[in-house]
Amino acid sequence: MLKPAEEAPDFTLPRDGGEDVTLSGLRPAPVVLFFYPKDDTSGCTKEAIAFTGLAGEFEAAGAKVFGISKDTVAKHDKFRDKHELGIPLLSDAESDVCERYGVWKEKSMYGKKFMGIERTTVLIGGDGKVVQVWPKVKVPGHAEEVLEAVKAL
C-alpha cells in the first residue's frame, strides 16, 4: 500500500469512450483515483454515483477524479451509460496498476479465497506525490470526505 509523500506510480490506461489517460499528463492538477472491484455491483455503483454527484465540486477545486477497476472499456461504457456516470472509468484489465498501488489483495467470501481489488481511494497532489490513502473504503459519505481533503490542499 502506498504511503503519503511517496511518488505515485505513473501509468497510462484506456478509459471509457476509448481514449488513454496518463497520470503524469494530468499535472499540476490533484488527482483522485478510486479503485473499485466491479462495474454494476451495488457498492461500486453507489460509489461511482456519489463521485459523479460531486464531480462539479471536484472540478471547481481543480481536481481530476477517475474510477479504476479490471473491467473492460466496453463494460465501463455500459456501466457509465446505464447509471449516467460523469466520472471517467479506467480499465486496468491486467491489474498492473492495481498491483503497483497495493490494492490487489487476497479476499475471502463464503469461505473461498480469491484475488481482487480492495476498495481504496488515493489522493495524489499536483506534484505527483501521494497525499492521502483511504483503504477498505465504506461508501456512505466517502466521496464527501475525499472532496474535503481535496479542498484542504
From TrEMBL:
Pfam families linked: AhpC-TSA
Enzyme class: oxidoreductase
One GO cellular component, as annotated: cytoplasm
Cited PANTHER family: AHPC_TSA FAMILY PROTEIN, THIOREDOXIN-DEPENDENT PEROXIDE REDUCTASE
Subunit structure, as described in the record: Monomer.
Family stated for the protein in its record: Belongs to the peroxiredoxin family. BCP/PrxQ subfamily.
Protein name: thioredoxin-dependent peroxiredoxin
Organism: Roseovarius indicus
